[in-house]
Amino acid sequence: MPDVLIHGDTFRSPDLRHEVPVAIPDPLLYAERNGSRHVVVSALEYARVRAVDGLEARAFEDLGMDELLAQGMDRDAAELEVYVRACRELGISEAVVPWTFPLALAERLRAQGVAVTAERDLFVERRRVKTEAELTGIRRAQRACEAAMGTAKGLIGEGVTCEEVRAAIERVFIEHDVFADEIIVSHGAESAIGHEIGSGAIAAGEPVVIDLFPRDRQSGCYADMTRTFAAGEPPDELVEWHRLCKQALDLALGAIRPRVRGAELHRLVCDLFHEHGYKTQLSKEPGEVLSEGFFHSLGHGVGLEVHEEPGLGRNGVELVAGDVVAVEPGLYRPGFGGCRLEDLVLVTDGGCENLTNFPYELQ
Fold first, then answer.
1. Three-class SS of residue 126?
2. Helices 236-255 and 262-275: angle between axes, nearest 10 degrees
3. Of the candidates 115, 83, 80, 118, the residue with the CA atom closest to the CA atom of residue 98
């Protein structure tokens, strides 16, 4: 097992939050050496890190921070030197790091004889099987999604604005101790535009796509779900899309199990849509920017990032027990709108568990 270094804060680095399950806004260094796990951190966070089982905490002061600052070194440079000293003390001469590892720190370590190599797959695989704490956080965030979706569903009507619905969703999120950088409440033609968040008043019969992906404060983990509604009587085209999307969702959920490739699930759904005359990523011309039909992948992993491995697209890898995936078939037409249904699913040894508990009704 290679030595490992991860640098950052646990708000923005999912790799770091996976190893150090504490909300820390300032940079720290995580190091693994011969099976031992070390965290070099400021005095402000020292006690909280020490309280985590399995982590050995070292304060900046233990590695000469006071001396370096007294010499007139600026704080950023002093932190780099402290990290170099930590590697020396631990006997780390080479290590693997995430792709997001800071260039400045990598250059400083290399200059001091510590070889660092950026890896992707290693860190992706470390986070795929969710810990119990992460899975509990995902479930909490999903319950918040469902409560907020219920509130939104009750508000949708002709003349109600997307902004009003979004504000109500945010209030529910606060009550459930989750937060979201964006909340998608799009209607009419704008619901055919990917992640357009939506604005303005809802008209009778048009599609309303609500996509919620809040983050649990305690664990840092996300949930993700989507439902499509209509205010009043929906047009026949939207009714048919909704029927097909539900059929596609059921088809995918019935096939999810360990060792099935995400690409196989994507193809199942694409084949269904092809049979009914809709374009997909598998039928479009190479280089074509698809704007109608099923123009995105079937889904993605969810955890400490809202979009992470495993992907459920054209190159999707094999699923493993412990993956959490969002499954989201959709159909769209520019100028009219879209329809998308999305459930959150845990891959289990015997198949899967749908973590989403919310109805699919269009009206």
1. helix
2. 150
3. 118
Q: Is the peptide bond before 310 cis (omega within 30 degrees of 0)?
A: yes
Domains of the chain, residue spans: 4-128, 132-354
CATH topology of domain 132-354: Creatine Amidinohydrolase (3.90.230)
Q: Which residue has the tokens 């290399």?
A: 110
The residue among 77, 20, 66, 72 whose CA lies nearest residue 43 is: 66
Span 20-74, pLDDT tens digits? 999 999 999 999 999 999 999 999 999 999 999 999 999 999 999 999 999 999 9
Which amino acid would we find at residue 49?
A: V
What tokens appear for 259 in the block? 């060792």
Average pLDDT of span 253-273: 98
Q: Are 227 and 149 in contact (CB under 8 A)?
A: yes
Q: Is 246 helix (H, G, I), strand (E, B) or coil?
A: helix
Model confidence, pTM: 0.95
Tell me the CATH architecture of domain 4-128. Answer: 3-Layer(aba) Sandwich (3.40)
